[in-house]
Design brief:
Layout (H helix, E strand, L loop, with lengths): L1 H27 L1 E5 L14 E5 L2 H4 L7 E5 L7 E8 L4 E5 L2 E4 L2 E2 L23 E2 L4 E5 L9 H4 L2 E2 L3 E10 L5 E2 L8
Antiparallel strand pairs: 1-2, 2-11, 3-4, 3-11, 4-9, 5-6, 5-8, 6-7, 9-10, 11-12
């Protein structure tokens, strides 16, 4: 009888240890997310799964080109996945279908070259917007089908929950997510 009790206690310890490690990783280090919809095509597709790095922004700041997960207004319950294009303190505008940062056209090699970027309710054609401190201007890669900062405004830093780091499903898309380098 002692052997059975000892065996059950060992199994219980292993389960508690495994669950503790899982919760630690899930809550503080990496979190899985599923792409829902077409707003990040052609780079990320509906149904893809990725891991979000939750540590990077605890020790550093988001940068232009990062694909981030954030809690979206107005309820801040739903999480969106978008790309950072504008940083705190920068002036952003949309003119003749192109994004301009501090008066210079943003070259975006991760979207089709002929993409025409439409303005939105929050940022209208030709309007200059200074991005508030501790806020970021985010856009979906599929500019025609994305609810992003053009309509909801800049995203405050406190609502960014992590950086999309690694695609793990489907197997054909497995890989690290790189942030593009920009040339103005």
């Amino acid at each position: 009888m002692n052997k059975i009790g000892s065996f059950i206690l060992e199994i219980l310890q292993i389960v508690v240890f495994a669950v503790s490690i899982f919760l630690f990783v899930y809550l503080l280090i990496l979190q899985p997310h599923k792409i829902k919809g077409a707003s990040m095509e052609p780079n990320f597709h509906d149904g893809e799964y990725l891991l979000t790095d939750k540590i990077s922004y605890r020790i550093g700041q988001p940068t232009r080109g990062d694909v981030v997960v954030f809690k979206a207004p107005p309820t801040y319950k739903d999480e969106f996945i978008k790309r950072i294009v504008g940083l705190p303190g920068e002036t952003i505008s949309i003119q003749r279908g192109k994004v301009y940062i501090n008066g210079r056209e943003l070259k975006e090699n991760y979207i089709p070259e002929n993409t025409y970027i439409t303005p939105g309710k929050y940022l209208q054609e030709g309007q200059n917007l200074v991005i508030p401190q501790n806020s970021y201007f985010v856009l979906g890669d599929n500019r025609e089908h994305s609810l992003d900062s053009r309509n909801i405004g800049p995203v405050e830093r406190q609502y960014i929950t992590g950086r999309a780091w690694f695609v793990y499903w489907p197997v054909t898309e497995v890989g690290v997510i790189d942030s593009p380098k920009y040339l103005f």
